[in-house]
User: Fold this.
Amino acid sequence: MEPGNANNVLLSCLEKNVTKQASATATPPLSSSLADPRGLAQGLEEAFLAVRNETERRAAPLSPEDQQIQSMPDASPTKWHRAHTTWFWEQFLLGEHCPGYRPFHPDFAFLFNSYYVSAGPRHSRNHRGDITRPSADQVGAYRAYVDAAVVKFFREVGADKLREVAPLVEVGLNHEQQHQELMFTDILHAFAQNPIPPAYDPDWRFPASTRTGEDWLTLNEGIHTVGHVDDSFHFDNEKPAHRALVGPVRVSRNLVTNAEWLAFMRDGGYRTATLWLMDGFATVNNEGWDAPGHWRDIDGQWQMMTLAGLKPVDPDAPVCHVSYYEADAFARWAGKHLPTEMEWEVAARAGQLNDAFGIVWQWTRSSYSPYPGYRAIEGALGEYNGKFMINQLVLRGSSLATPEGHSRITYRNFFYPHHRWQFTGLRLADYE
Ligand SMILES: [Fe+2]
Assistant:
Protein backbone atom coordinates (compact mmCIF):
# COMPACT_ATOMS: atom_id res chain seq x y z
CA MET A 1 0.00 0.00 0.00
CA GLU A 2 1.17 3.42 -0.82
CA PRO A 3 0.88 5.58 2.29
CA GLY A 4 0.24 8.69 0.24
CA ASN A 5 0.49 12.28 1.27
CA ALA A 6 -0.14 12.51 4.98
CA ASN A 7 -1.80 15.88 4.63
CA ASN A 8 -4.63 14.39 2.68
CA VAL A 9 -4.82 10.98 4.14
CA LEU A 10 -7.62 11.54 6.59
CA LEU A 11 -9.55 8.52 5.51
CA SER A 12 -10.94 10.57 2.71
CA CYS A 13 -12.04 7.36 1.07
CA LEU A 14 -14.59 7.09 3.79
CA GLU A 15 -16.18 10.33 2.70
CA LYS A 16 -16.84 8.99 -0.75
CA ASN A 17 -20.20 7.44 -1.05
CA VAL A 18 -20.42 6.34 -4.62
CA THR A 19 -21.75 2.95 -3.65
CA LYS A 20 -25.11 1.49 -3.01
CA GLN A 21 -24.57 -0.78 -0.08
CA ALA A 22 -26.64 -3.58 1.29
CA SER A 23 -25.23 -3.78 4.75
CA ALA A 24 -22.66 -2.62 7.19
CA THR A 25 -22.30 0.30 9.48
CA ALA A 26 -20.81 3.43 8.02
CA THR A 27 -17.38 4.30 9.25
CA PRO A 28 -17.57 7.78 10.75
CA PRO A 29 -15.70 10.38 8.72
CA LEU A 30 -12.79 11.92 10.47
CA SER A 31 -13.68 15.44 11.43
CA SER A 32 -10.20 16.45 12.32
CA SER A 33 -7.06 17.40 10.48
CA LEU A 34 -3.47 16.46 10.90
CA ALA A 35 -2.85 19.90 12.35
CA ASP A 36 -5.13 19.00 15.26
CA PRO A 37 -3.49 16.01 16.97
CA ARG A 38 -6.25 15.47 19.53
CA GLY A 39 -8.86 15.61 16.80
CA LEU A 40 -6.79 13.26 14.69
CA ALA A 41 -6.41 10.82 17.56
CA GLN A 42 -10.15 10.87 18.18
CA GLY A 43 -10.91 10.46 14.50
CA LEU A 44 -8.55 7.54 14.15
CA GLU A 45 -10.00 5.89 17.22
CA GLU A 46 -13.55 6.27 15.97
CA ALA A 47 -12.71 4.96 12.52
CA PHE A 48 -10.73 2.08 14.01
CA LEU A 49 -13.47 1.00 16.38
CA ALA A 50 -16.15 1.30 13.70
CA VAL A 51 -14.26 -1.03 11.39
CA ARG A 52 -13.33 -3.45 14.15
CA ASN A 53 -16.94 -3.56 15.33
CA GLU A 54 -18.18 -4.23 11.81
CA THR A 55 -15.97 -7.32 11.62
CA GLU A 56 -17.50 -8.62 14.83
CA ARG A 57 -21.01 -7.71 13.68
CA ARG A 58 -20.51 -9.87 10.60
CA ALA A 59 -19.16 -12.75 12.64
CA ALA A 60 -21.84 -12.55 15.33
CA PRO A 61 -24.49 -14.78 13.69
CA LEU A 62 -21.93 -17.57 13.24
CA SER A 63 -21.37 -20.31 15.79
CA PRO A 64 -17.84 -21.44 16.75
CA GLU A 65 -18.38 -24.44 14.44
CA ASP A 66 -19.35 -22.14 11.56
CA GLN A 67 -16.28 -20.02 12.22
CA GLN A 68 -13.97 -23.02 12.05
CA ILE A 69 -14.70 -24.32 8.57
CA GLN A 70 -12.45 -23.89 5.54
CA SER A 71 -14.54 -25.25 2.68
CA MET A 72 -11.77 -24.92 0.07
CA PRO A 73 -8.18 -23.65 0.00
CA ASP A 74 -9.24 -20.28 -1.44
CA ALA A 75 -11.68 -19.62 1.39
CA SER A 76 -10.65 -18.94 4.96
CA PRO A 77 -12.47 -19.61 8.21
CA THR A 78 -14.29 -16.70 9.82
CA LYS A 79 -12.20 -17.23 12.93
CA TRP A 80 -9.04 -16.91 10.85
CA HIS A 81 -10.27 -13.65 9.27
CA ARG A 82 -10.96 -12.25 12.74
CA ALA A 83 -7.52 -13.24 13.94
CA HIS A 84 -5.56 -12.33 10.81
CA THR A 85 -6.96 -8.79 10.69
CA THR A 86 -5.92 -8.47 14.33
CA TRP A 87 -2.42 -9.74 13.60
CA PHE A 88 -2.16 -7.07 10.90
CA TRP A 89 -2.55 -4.33 13.56
CA GLU A 90 -0.13 -6.12 15.85
CA GLN A 91 2.47 -6.65 13.15
CA PHE A 92 2.42 -3.36 11.30
CA LEU A 93 1.22 -0.80 13.86
CA LEU A 94 1.87 -1.95 17.41
CA GLY A 95 4.97 -4.01 16.74
CA GLU A 96 6.59 -1.32 14.62
CA HIS A 97 5.49 1.87 16.36
CA CYS A 98 4.54 1.11 19.96
CA PRO A 99 7.67 0.55 22.07
CA GLY A 100 7.19 -2.04 24.75
CA TYR A 101 4.15 -3.62 23.14
CA ARG A 102 3.91 -7.29 24.04
CA PRO A 103 2.14 -9.55 21.54
CA PHE A 104 -0.92 -11.34 22.84
CA HIS A 105 0.56 -14.75 22.11
CA PRO A 106 4.00 -15.70 20.72
CA ASP A 107 2.56 -18.24 18.25
CA PHE A 108 -0.12 -16.08 16.70
CA ALA A 109 2.19 -14.36 14.21
CA PHE A 110 2.94 -17.78 12.69
CA LEU A 111 -0.71 -18.83 12.71
CA PHE A 112 -2.22 -15.64 11.33
CA ASN A 113 0.31 -14.11 8.95
CA SER A 114 -1.27 -14.60 5.52
CA TYR A 115 1.28 -14.16 2.76
CA TYR A 116 3.83 -11.60 4.01
CA VAL A 117 7.12 -13.38 3.47
CA SER A 118 8.94 -10.33 4.83
CA ALA A 119 7.01 -10.62 8.09
CA GLY A 120 8.28 -14.11 8.82
CA PRO A 121 7.24 -17.76 8.53
CA ARG A 122 3.56 -18.63 8.42
CA HIS A 123 1.08 -21.46 8.54
CA SER A 124 -0.05 -23.07 5.29
CA ARG A 125 -2.95 -21.26 3.67
CA ASN A 126 -4.54 -24.56 2.68
CA HIS A 127 -4.77 -25.67 6.28
CA ARG A 128 -6.26 -22.69 8.04
CA GLY A 129 -9.31 -24.79 8.84
CA ASP A 130 -7.14 -27.22 10.80
CA ILE A 131 -6.45 -24.64 13.50
CA THR A 132 -9.04 -25.63 16.08
CA ARG A 133 -7.04 -23.85 18.77
CA PRO A 134 -7.14 -20.99 19.60
CA SER A 135 -10.89 -21.17 19.98
CA ALA A 136 -13.27 -18.56 18.64
CA ASP A 137 -13.52 -17.17 22.18
CA GLN A 138 -9.74 -16.91 22.43
CA VAL A 139 -9.67 -15.07 19.14
CA GLY A 140 -12.26 -12.73 20.61
CA ALA A 141 -9.93 -12.11 23.53
CA TYR A 142 -7.07 -11.52 21.10
CA ARG A 143 -9.15 -8.92 19.29
CA ALA A 144 -10.09 -7.18 22.53
CA TYR A 145 -6.46 -7.11 23.68
CA VAL A 146 -5.25 -5.54 20.45
CA ASP A 147 -8.19 -3.14 20.27
CA ALA A 148 -7.35 -1.85 23.73
CA ALA A 149 -3.67 -1.50 22.86
CA VAL A 150 -4.42 0.41 19.65
CA VAL A 151 -6.84 2.78 21.37
CA LYS A 152 -4.32 3.37 24.16
CA PHE A 153 -1.68 4.06 21.54
CA PHE A 154 -3.88 6.62 19.76
CA ARG A 155 -4.59 8.38 23.05
CA GLU A 156 -1.04 8.48 24.37
CA VAL A 157 1.25 8.76 21.39
CA GLY A 158 2.85 12.05 20.41
CA ALA A 159 1.54 14.22 17.62
CA ASP A 160 4.44 13.54 15.26
CA LYS A 161 4.14 9.78 15.60
CA LEU A 162 0.39 10.01 15.17
CA ARG A 163 0.80 11.87 11.89
CA GLU A 164 3.40 9.33 10.79
CA VAL A 165 1.18 6.33 11.41
CA ALA A 166 -2.10 7.81 10.13
CA PRO A 167 -1.56 6.47 6.57
CA LEU A 168 -0.68 3.06 7.97
CA VAL A 169 -3.85 3.06 10.08
CA GLU A 170 -5.79 3.84 6.95
CA VAL A 171 -4.28 0.82 5.22
CA GLY A 172 -5.18 -1.32 8.22
CA LEU A 173 -8.78 -0.16 8.10
CA ASN A 174 -9.09 -0.86 4.39
CA HIS A 175 -7.37 -4.20 4.81
CA GLU A 176 -9.87 -5.24 7.45
CA GLN A 177 -12.75 -4.09 5.25
CA GLN A 178 -11.46 -6.33 2.47
CA HIS A 179 -11.56 -9.24 4.87
CA GLN A 180 -15.10 -8.30 5.91
CA GLU A 181 -16.19 -8.96 2.34
CA LEU A 182 -14.31 -12.26 2.31
CA MET A 183 -16.05 -13.29 5.52
CA PHE A 184 -19.36 -13.23 3.63
CA THR A 185 -18.11 -14.93 0.48
CA ASP A 186 -16.24 -17.60 2.39
CA ILE A 187 -19.04 -18.53 4.78
CA LEU A 188 -21.50 -18.56 1.87
CA HIS A 189 -19.26 -21.04 0.06
CA ALA A 190 -19.10 -23.16 3.20
CA PHE A 191 -22.87 -23.08 3.70
CA ALA A 192 -23.38 -23.90 0.02
CA GLN A 193 -21.60 -27.24 0.62
CA ASN A 194 -24.11 -28.14 3.31
CA PRO A 195 -26.90 -30.46 2.10
CA ILE A 196 -29.29 -28.66 4.45
CA PRO A 197 -28.41 -25.12 3.34
CA PRO A 198 -28.07 -22.83 6.34
CA ALA A 199 -29.00 -19.17 6.30
CA TYR A 200 -26.49 -16.62 7.51
CA ASP A 201 -29.40 -14.23 8.00
CA PRO A 202 -32.92 -15.43 7.11
CA ASP A 203 -34.03 -11.83 6.56
CA TRP A 204 -31.24 -10.97 4.14
CA ARG A 205 -32.38 -9.94 0.67
CA PHE A 206 -30.47 -9.76 -2.59
CA PRO A 207 -30.15 -6.03 -3.39
CA ALA A 208 -32.57 -4.67 -5.96
CA SER A 209 -31.24 -3.77 -9.37
CA THR A 210 -31.76 -0.25 -10.72
CA ARG A 211 -31.96 -1.35 -14.32
CA THR A 212 -33.52 1.55 -16.22
CA GLY A 213 -33.37 3.56 -19.38
CA GLU A 214 -31.24 3.09 -22.44
CA ASP A 215 -29.34 -0.15 -22.71
CA TRP A 216 -26.06 1.19 -24.07
CA LEU A 217 -23.73 4.04 -23.30
CA THR A 218 -21.67 5.20 -26.27
CA LEU A 219 -18.13 6.39 -25.60
CA ASN A 220 -16.56 8.19 -28.52
CA GLU A 221 -12.87 7.88 -29.12
CA GLY A 222 -10.95 9.96 -26.65
CA ILE A 223 -7.91 10.17 -24.44
CA HIS A 224 -8.84 9.96 -20.77
CA THR A 225 -7.01 10.09 -17.47
CA VAL A 226 -7.50 6.79 -15.66
CA GLY A 227 -6.32 5.67 -12.25
CA HIS A 228 -6.32 7.46 -8.94
CA VAL A 229 -5.43 11.11 -9.32
CA ASP A 230 -5.19 12.74 -5.91
CA ASP A 231 -3.74 11.75 -2.54
CA SER A 232 -6.99 10.58 -0.98
CA PHE A 233 -6.86 6.96 0.10
CA HIS A 234 -6.19 4.43 -2.61
CA PHE A 235 -4.34 1.16 -2.96
CA ASP A 236 -1.01 1.37 -4.71
CA ASN A 237 -2.32 -0.60 -7.70
CA GLU A 238 -4.59 2.34 -8.63
CA LYS A 239 -1.59 4.54 -9.40
CA PRO A 240 0.04 6.14 -11.27
CA ALA A 241 -2.85 7.86 -12.98
CA HIS A 242 -2.12 7.97 -16.68
CA ARG A 243 -3.63 8.76 -20.03
CA ALA A 244 -5.38 6.06 -22.03
CA LEU A 245 -7.11 5.90 -25.38
CA VAL A 246 -10.68 4.68 -24.91
CA GLY A 247 -13.38 4.15 -27.52
CA PRO A 248 -15.21 4.12 -29.67
CA VAL A 249 -17.13 1.57 -27.65
CA ARG A 250 -20.61 0.96 -26.35
CA VAL A 251 -20.81 -0.19 -22.73
CA SER A 252 -23.96 -1.80 -21.38
CA ARG A 253 -25.58 0.36 -18.73
CA ASN A 254 -27.01 -2.75 -17.13
CA LEU A 255 -25.66 -5.91 -15.57
CA VAL A 256 -26.36 -9.25 -17.23
CA THR A 257 -29.37 -10.85 -15.55
CA ASN A 258 -30.24 -14.37 -14.50
CA ALA A 259 -32.89 -14.47 -17.26
CA GLU A 260 -30.21 -13.76 -19.84
CA TRP A 261 -27.97 -16.36 -18.27
CA LEU A 262 -30.76 -18.95 -18.32
CA ALA A 263 -31.15 -18.31 -22.06
CA PHE A 264 -27.41 -18.98 -22.46
CA MET A 265 -27.83 -22.23 -20.52
CA ARG A 266 -30.89 -23.32 -22.50
CA ASP A 267 -28.97 -22.69 -25.70
CA GLY A 268 -26.32 -25.18 -24.61
CA GLY A 269 -23.84 -22.50 -23.60
CA TYR A 270 -22.00 -24.70 -21.12
CA ARG A 271 -21.65 -27.51 -23.71
CA THR A 272 -20.60 -25.51 -26.77
CA ALA A 273 -16.82 -25.66 -26.98
CA THR A 274 -16.56 -22.92 -29.59
CA LEU A 275 -17.82 -20.36 -27.08
CA TRP A 276 -15.05 -21.03 -24.60
CA LEU A 277 -11.41 -20.31 -24.05
CA MET A 278 -9.49 -23.59 -23.96
CA ASP A 279 -8.72 -23.30 -20.25
CA GLY A 280 -12.31 -22.30 -19.61
CA PHE A 281 -13.83 -25.30 -21.34
CA ALA A 282 -11.39 -27.59 -19.54
CA THR A 283 -12.52 -26.06 -16.26
CA VAL A 284 -16.20 -26.49 -17.17
CA ASN A 285 -15.62 -30.16 -17.85
CA ASN A 286 -13.31 -30.83 -14.93
CA GLU A 287 -15.64 -29.11 -12.49
CA GLY A 288 -18.88 -30.31 -14.07
CA TRP A 289 -20.22 -26.78 -14.34
CA ASP A 290 -23.63 -26.35 -15.96
CA ALA A 291 -24.80 -23.23 -14.13
CA PRO A 292 -23.37 -20.36 -12.04
CA GLY A 293 -21.81 -21.12 -8.69
CA HIS A 294 -24.13 -21.91 -5.78
CA TRP A 295 -27.02 -22.83 -8.12
CA ARG A 296 -28.95 -26.05 -7.51
CA ASP A 297 -31.45 -27.73 -9.79
CA ILE A 298 -34.25 -28.79 -7.47
CA ASP A 299 -37.06 -30.68 -9.15
CA GLY A 300 -36.40 -28.87 -12.41
CA GLN A 301 -36.24 -25.41 -10.83
CA TRP A 302 -33.05 -23.47 -10.40
CA GLN A 303 -32.36 -22.20 -6.91
CA MET A 304 -29.31 -20.38 -5.65
CA MET A 305 -27.56 -20.31 -2.34
CA THR A 306 -27.68 -16.84 -0.77
CA LEU A 307 -26.89 -15.36 2.62
CA ALA A 308 -30.57 -16.03 3.39
CA GLY A 309 -30.24 -19.68 2.40
CA LEU A 310 -31.51 -21.37 -0.73
CA LYS A 311 -33.78 -19.09 -2.81
CA PRO A 312 -35.41 -19.40 -6.24
CA VAL A 313 -33.31 -17.79 -8.96
CA ASP A 314 -34.82 -14.35 -9.65
CA PRO A 315 -34.79 -13.86 -13.43
CA ASP A 316 -34.60 -10.08 -13.09
CA ALA A 317 -31.64 -10.05 -10.68
CA PRO A 318 -28.07 -9.66 -11.91
CA VAL A 319 -26.32 -12.99 -12.40
CA CYS A 320 -23.86 -13.72 -9.61
CA HIS A 321 -21.06 -16.22 -8.91
CA VAL A 322 -19.79 -16.56 -12.46
CA SER A 323 -16.12 -16.95 -13.27
CA TYR A 324 -14.18 -14.99 -15.87
CA TYR A 325 -14.30 -18.05 -18.09
CA GLU A 326 -18.09 -18.08 -17.93
CA ALA A 327 -18.40 -14.31 -18.38
CA ASP A 328 -16.16 -14.50 -21.44
CA ALA A 329 -18.16 -17.39 -22.94
CA PHE A 330 -21.45 -15.61 -22.30
CA ALA A 331 -20.18 -12.47 -24.03
CA ARG A 332 -19.12 -14.51 -27.05
CA TRP A 333 -22.51 -16.26 -27.14
CA ALA A 334 -24.22 -12.85 -27.02
CA GLY A 335 -22.08 -11.61 -29.91
CA LYS A 336 -20.54 -9.02 -27.59
CA HIS A 337 -17.42 -8.58 -25.44
CA LEU A 338 -16.37 -7.83 -21.91
CA PRO A 339 -15.23 -4.22 -21.46
CA THR A 340 -11.66 -3.35 -20.61
CA GLU A 341 -11.11 -1.88 -17.17
CA MET A 342 -10.40 1.49 -18.78
CA GLU A 343 -13.69 1.41 -20.68
CA TRP A 344 -15.45 0.54 -17.45
CA GLU A 345 -13.74 3.35 -15.55
CA VAL A 346 -14.50 6.02 -18.15
CA ALA A 347 -18.14 4.90 -18.35
CA ALA A 348 -18.46 4.83 -14.56
CA ARG A 349 -16.90 8.26 -14.27
CA ALA A 350 -19.60 9.52 -16.60
CA GLY A 351 -22.13 8.28 -14.04
CA GLN A 352 -23.93 6.28 -16.69
CA LEU A 353 -23.64 2.72 -15.41
CA ASN A 354 -26.54 1.21 -13.50
CA ASP A 355 -25.51 -0.89 -10.53
CA ALA A 356 -21.83 -0.13 -10.96
CA PHE A 357 -21.50 -0.59 -7.21
CA GLY A 358 -23.12 -2.63 -4.49
CA ILE A 359 -24.42 -5.77 -6.19
CA VAL A 360 -21.72 -7.73 -8.06
CA TRP A 361 -18.12 -7.07 -9.02
CA GLN A 362 -17.89 -6.92 -12.77
CA TRP A 363 -15.34 -8.87 -14.75
CA THR A 364 -13.31 -6.93 -17.27
CA ARG A 365 -11.11 -8.48 -19.92
CA SER A 366 -8.09 -6.57 -18.61
CA SER A 367 -5.21 -8.47 -17.13
CA TYR A 368 -4.24 -7.38 -13.65
CA SER A 369 -1.01 -5.63 -14.58
CA PRO A 370 0.91 -2.71 -13.14
CA TYR A 371 0.01 0.70 -14.43
CA PRO A 372 2.86 2.45 -16.27
CA GLY A 373 5.48 3.43 -13.71
CA TYR A 374 3.92 1.44 -10.85
CA ARG A 375 6.14 0.80 -7.88
CA ALA A 376 5.20 -1.17 -4.81
CA ILE A 377 6.13 0.55 -1.57
CA GLU A 378 9.17 -0.61 0.33
CA GLY A 379 8.92 -3.04 3.19
CA ALA A 380 6.58 -5.88 4.00
CA LEU A 381 3.47 -3.95 2.95
CA GLY A 382 4.93 -3.80 -0.54
CA GLU A 383 3.69 -7.40 -0.77
CA TYR A 384 0.09 -6.23 -0.45
CA ASN A 385 -0.74 -5.91 -4.16
CA GLY A 386 2.21 -5.92 -6.51
CA LYS A 387 3.25 -9.55 -6.27
CA PHE A 388 -0.19 -10.67 -7.41
CA MET A 389 0.04 -8.91 -10.78
CA ILE A 390 0.22 -12.08 -12.83
CA ASN A 391 -2.38 -14.40 -14.36
CA GLN A 392 -5.38 -12.62 -12.83
CA LEU A 393 -8.16 -10.48 -14.30
CA VAL A 394 -9.42 -7.14 -13.05
CA LEU A 395 -12.93 -6.71 -11.69
CA ARG A 396 -14.45 -3.29 -11.21
CA GLY A 397 -17.23 -1.84 -9.07
CA SER A 398 -18.09 -3.45 -5.76
CA SER A 399 -20.49 -6.06 -4.43
CA LEU A 400 -23.30 -6.52 -1.98
CA ALA A 401 -20.70 -7.69 0.53
CA THR A 402 -18.38 -4.70 0.17
CA PRO A 403 -18.42 -2.59 3.35
CA GLU A 404 -19.81 0.89 3.10
CA GLY A 405 -17.19 3.48 2.24
CA HIS A 406 -14.79 0.94 0.71
CA SER A 407 -15.67 1.49 -2.96
CA ARG A 408 -14.40 3.92 -5.57
CA ILE A 409 -14.29 4.27 -9.31
CA THR A 410 -10.56 3.53 -9.57
CA TYR A 411 -10.65 0.42 -7.34
CA ARG A 412 -9.06 -2.63 -8.97
CA ASN A 413 -10.18 -5.97 -7.62
CA PHE A 414 -8.57 -9.09 -9.06
CA PHE A 415 -9.15 -12.82 -9.13
CA TYR A 416 -8.04 -15.82 -11.14
CA PRO A 417 -10.22 -16.64 -14.14
CA HIS A 418 -11.71 -19.79 -12.62
CA HIS A 419 -12.76 -18.12 -9.37
CA ARG A 420 -16.48 -17.71 -8.83
CA TRP A 421 -17.17 -17.87 -5.12
CA GLN A 422 -17.03 -14.08 -4.89
CA PHE A 423 -20.08 -11.99 -5.76
CA THR A 424 -19.06 -11.67 -9.40
CA GLY A 425 -21.09 -10.84 -12.48
CA LEU A 426 -20.66 -8.87 -15.68
CA ARG A 427 -21.78 -6.19 -18.05
CA LEU A 428 -21.11 -6.29 -21.78
CA ALA A 429 -19.35 -4.07 -24.29
CA ASP A 430 -19.81 -3.77 -28.04
CA TYR A 431 -17.77 -2.25 -30.82
CA GLU A 432 -20.33 -2.15 -33.63
FE1 LIG B 1 -5.09 -9.88 4.75
Residues 159-192 form the longest helix (34 residues). The chain has two domains: 36-192, 216-430. Residues 84, 114, 175, 179 surround fe (ii) ion (CB under 6 Å). Confidence is low (pLDDT under 50) at residues 1-32.
